[in-house]
């Protein structure tokens, strides 16, 4: 396996300050609760609360299964910990565990649309813990126990499983075991091993370790082939020190006493212990083509670089996202609970776990979609030593894993509500996906494959420097900060931002390119009332002119700006330097992402009251933009009226635009004029059977700037939508303008969109 590429970090590493800022910014923490019903009127109140609420109360009292129909129970999982084994950091208590538990709760939501809340319980007493949880059954559809130390976790989980009629799942045990076994199945396949003759050493005999070896044995590895180790060394038959019944059950008759001795000739190493527990020497002593899963978090037992120093034939995985082969339970718990909840499973049993592991292993062997390539810096992974397990951003996880788990629950008789049509269920699962994940991941992947030089014009601003550092660290290209070098460096130092490789600082006044930039600007503006002196001043002192000219003359590929000045001023400046792309019209489009759907809205930036002709151009630009993003455009020309009713002056332009598009014979679906509900809601559209759109619109062309701007901002503020943009489309060179005070993550997204040349 000498052709195995050397392991490398993806470069998305974060600083301690990044992590603290991420957690404290805006509303502290990572989640909030939002209502699903309006609570606006007296009637709403009467329905949601007294007296209306009494009706579902009585219904549930008569038939408890109705709680799934009338409450959140069926989609709600509690992530519960006492903080006694937080990642590999040890017993730091319940309060300190809260960031991890909140994190798991948001991952449930993000990856599988499972609502989740963290509960930290302040006790190390097993009985008290069990009692705190057992009475919570009516609140939840499932219980995810987390980061509870062994052996307490074994007692807690088995007692709660007996006491509660919903799935109780200690993720550090079974989640980890499922993912590790999935990776192992593929690694065995790649190295041509038979599980029956393979020897495994598992370092860590706690929650994760015991569960991993139990599942491995359930998959067919003979007990005598498995050596378990802990802080005292090998768990051998007859050992008395540091033992408990769970370790004893896996004690082996062996002469090996230390991890070092155990590792000699071993085929597989599972590390679920602590940072640095495995040495290069031990790796050297393993069998040919060894399989090493160093899963301790946040730092593995050994790094891929350290393994690569001693041998080049290993298949290596860690629990981290910044190396290839992330063996982490995030690949399991969202989807396992999704499947279990959807069939109202009473428990998560062995067949469901094995089904999840097999489905994961199978996914890694299939061809991967674009978004998966994103996590591999544009190098499309292919099943092999560097890709034995799917990545967390793989969109297929959400349709495949829950379906496999649900099927296994049905087959093993624990499903309370079987799924009648699996194919339809898989489609429903895909629709649960948060679309922003896919859209941005695709763009990032393409930019990484073809990195660009991007100007960050307001280079002295802290959030811009932070964004530039992140852009460079994510290997999206070179970030060019415009500003005075000493000020940029001081601001960066004070904010704890490292100016690393991939960042350049350009001071406009000192640039050798100034004479050329001034000549270029003067040639463009001399007949618009500008003197040479004016152009000198603009290039020397105005970072937008300097930066845009860099892009115009090819010294950079794209630019982002606008954090410190208002949109229209910046747009005017930029358009003085950069032309409209021949045959195009400059417009602004916004991408609106709401659960389950993405729509493109135009024109959100440039034309105030567009004519029919201009609306037709806007439709063409927006449709082209949607295609470049990978969406099939179905363009609705919006108005307050639908096909002539009610009549009105403003709808006339929209009708005209439709006629113009007809004459132009454009190659995308369009129709109008129509109201927004008709465009977006198939039931409302059904009232107009002659409508030419084959489904809900994906592109909304607004009748005027005010309606475009108002509606997108309302969607953002009131509708919970994520709005990206306005993005400038139709310029000859890619420039994107940020909103005043944009945050670093928004700036990075815009820089990536500019580099992608989305416009
Ligand atoms: N990648 C992933 O998805 C997951 C990774 N993990 C990681 O696994 C590790 C263990 O977690 P968990 O099982 O929940 O914790 P537990 O506290 O339940 O168990 C820890 C086990 O590790 C052993 N151990 C600790 N340090 C060493 C060492 N230096 N050498 C040998 N054994 C050691 C302990 O030994 P003893 O019994 O003697 O005290 C104990 O058996 C953590 O680092 C965690 O981050 C956990 C879950 C998921
Ligand atoms: C990933 C995880 O659950 C852990 O490290 O504890
Ligand atoms: Mg954990």
UniProtKB/TrEMBL annotation:
NADP(+) binds at residues 86-93. GO terms for biological process: malate metabolic process. This is Malate dehydrogenase (Oxaloacetate-decarboxylating)(NADP+). A divalent metal cation binds at residues 146-147, 172, 297. One of its GO terms (molecular function) is NAD binding. Residues 173-410 form the Malic enzyme NAD-binding domain. CDD domains: NAD_bind_2_malic_enz (cd05311). The active site is at 104 (proton acceptor). Keywords: Metal-binding, Multifunctional enzyme, NADP, Oxidoreductase. The keyword Amino-acid biosynthesis does not apply. Transmembrane segments: none annotated. PROSITE patterns: MALIC_ENZYMES (PS00331). In the N-terminal section; belongs to the malic enzymes family. Gene3D superfamilies: 3.40.50.10950, Isocitrate/Isopropylmalate dehydrogenase-like (3.40.50.10750), Malic enzyme, N-terminal domain (3.40.50.10380), NAD(P)-binding Rossmann-like Domain (3.40.50.720). It holds the Pfam family PTA_PTB. InterPro entries: Aminoacid_DH-like_N_sf, Malate_Decarboxylase, Malic_enzyme_CS, Malic_N_dom, Malic_N_dom_sf, Malic_NAD-bd, Malic_NAD-bd_bact_type, ME_PTA.
């Amino acid at each position: 396996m000498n052709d195995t590429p050397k392991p490398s970090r993806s470069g998305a590493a974060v600083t301690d300050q990044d992590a603290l800022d991420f957690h404290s910014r805006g509303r502290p923490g990572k989640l909030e609760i939002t209502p699903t019903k309006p609570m606006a009127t007296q009637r709403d109140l009467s329905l949601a609360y007294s007296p209306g609420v009494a009706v579902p109360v009585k219904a549930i009292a008569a038939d408890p299964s109705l709680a799934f129909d009338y409450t959140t129970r069926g989609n709600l999982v509690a992530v519960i910990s006492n903080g006694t084994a937080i990642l590999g950091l040890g017993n730091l208590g319940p309060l300190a565990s809260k960031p991890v538990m909140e994190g798991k709760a948001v991952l449930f939501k993000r990856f599988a649309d499972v609502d989740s809340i963290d509960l930290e319980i302040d006790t190390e007493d097993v009985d008290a813990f069990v009692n705190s949880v057992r009475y919570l059954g009516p609140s939840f559809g499932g219980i995810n126990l987390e980061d509870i130390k062994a052996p307490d976790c074994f007692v807690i989980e088995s007692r709660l499983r007996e006491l509660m009629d919903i799935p109780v799942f200690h993720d550090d045990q079974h989640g980890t075991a499922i993912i590790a076994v999935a990776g192992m199945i593929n690694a065995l396949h790649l190295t041509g091993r038979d599980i029956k003759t393979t020897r495994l050493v598992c370092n860590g005999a706690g929650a994760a370790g015991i569960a991993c070896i139990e599942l491995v044995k359930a998959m067919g590895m003979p007990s005598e082939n498995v050596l378990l180790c802990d802080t005292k060394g090998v768990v051998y038959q007859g050992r008395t020190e540091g033992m408990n019944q769970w370790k004893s059950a896996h004690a082996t008759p062996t002469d090996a006493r230390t991890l070092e001795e155990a590792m000699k000739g071993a085929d597989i190493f599972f590390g679920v212990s602590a940072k640095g527990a495995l040495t290069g020497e031990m790796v050297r002593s393993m069998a040919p083509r060894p399989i090493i899963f160093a899963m301790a978090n946040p730092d593995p037992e050994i790094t891929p670089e350290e393994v690569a120093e001693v041998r080049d034939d290993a298949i290596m995985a860690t629990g981290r996202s910044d190396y290839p082969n992330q063996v982490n339970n995030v690949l399991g718990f969202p989807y396992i609970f999704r499947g279990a909840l959807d069939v109202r499973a009473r428990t998560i049993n062995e067949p469901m776990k094995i089904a999840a592991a097999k489905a994961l292993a199978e996914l890694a062997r299939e061809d991967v979609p674009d978004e998966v390539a994103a996590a591999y810096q544009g190098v499309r992974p292919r099943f092999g030593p560097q890709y034995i397990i799917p990545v967390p951003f793989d969109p297929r996880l959400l349709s495949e894993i829950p379906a496999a788990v649900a099927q296994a629950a049905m087959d093993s008789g624990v499903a309370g509500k079987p799924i009648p049509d699996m194919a339809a269920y898989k489609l429903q699962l895909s629709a649960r996906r948060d679309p922003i994940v896919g859209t941005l991941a695709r763009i990032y992947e393409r930019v990484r494959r073809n990195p660009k030089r991007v100007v960050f014009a307001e280079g002295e601003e802290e959030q811009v420097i932070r964004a530039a550092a992140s852009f460079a660290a994510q290997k999206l290209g070179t970030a060019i900060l415009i500003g005075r070098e000493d000020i940029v460096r001081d601001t960066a130092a004070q904010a704890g931002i490292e100016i690393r490789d991939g960042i350049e600082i350009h001071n406009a006044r000192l640039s050798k390119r100034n004479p050329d930039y001034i000549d270029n600007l003067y040639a463009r503006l001399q007949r618009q009332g500008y003197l040479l002196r004016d152009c000198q001043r603009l290039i020397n002192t105005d970072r937008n002119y300097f930066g845009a000219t860099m892009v115009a003359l090819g010294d950079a590929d794209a630019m982002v700006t606008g954090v410190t000045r208002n949109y229209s001023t910046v747009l005017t400046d930029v358009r003085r330097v950069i032309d409209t792309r021949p045959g195009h019209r400059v417009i602004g489009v916004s991408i609106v992402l709401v659960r389950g759907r993405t729509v493109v809205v135009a024109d959100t930036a440039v034309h105030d009251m567009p004519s029919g002709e201009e609306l037709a151009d806007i439709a063409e630009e927006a449709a082209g933009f949607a295609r470049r993003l990978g969406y099939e455009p179905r363009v609705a020309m919006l108005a307050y009226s639908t096909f002539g009713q009610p009549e009105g002056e403003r709808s006339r332009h929209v009708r005209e635009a439709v006629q113009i598009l007809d004459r132009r014979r454009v190659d995308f679906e369009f129709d109008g004029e129509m109201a927004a509900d008709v465009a977006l809601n198939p039931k409302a559209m059904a009232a107009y059977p002659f409508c030419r759109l084959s489904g809900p619109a994906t592109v909304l062309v607004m009748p005027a700037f005010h309606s475009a701007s108002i509606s997108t901002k309302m969607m953002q503020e009131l509708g919970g939508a994520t709005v990206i943009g306005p993005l400038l489309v139709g310029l000859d060179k890619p420039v994107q303008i940020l909103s005043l005070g944009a945050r670093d993550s928004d700036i990075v997204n815009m820089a990536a969109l500019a580099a992608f040349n989305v416009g």
